[in-house]
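Morning!

This is the sequence you dropped in the shared folder:
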Amino acid sequence: QVQLVESGGGSVQAGGSLRLSCVFTRYKYTNNYAWFRQAPGKEREAVAAIYISVSMTYYSDSVKGRFSISQDNAKNTVYLQMSSLKPEDTAMYYCAAAPYARRWSALEEYIYWGQGTQVTVSS
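The structure's back. Tokens below.
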């Protein structure tokens, strides 16, 4: 069983930055970690993912160049550094984990989920 705990959300003005953290209990068969987000009235969407065994990262087009996902194995933590934030980035952000996601952005590939952390960007 993998447990994920997110933190770092908050309120920020447009153009600002936040760093989200996802602390996870280590499970040897978990290779993928990802961040998803869900805005009110919208479907949950993939934001970024990291494949730990090969250090590959993926981003949605909407955040590419502004967000960065990284890992710290010593701290069992995955980060999402968010810069140049926009009001449309406002959402609940979730950390997720999978043994191996064939499609990094597919929600159904992820087995373990955190409770989420709220990010609000004001104009």
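Headline: The radius of gyration is 13 Å.

More detail when I'm at my desk.
O.
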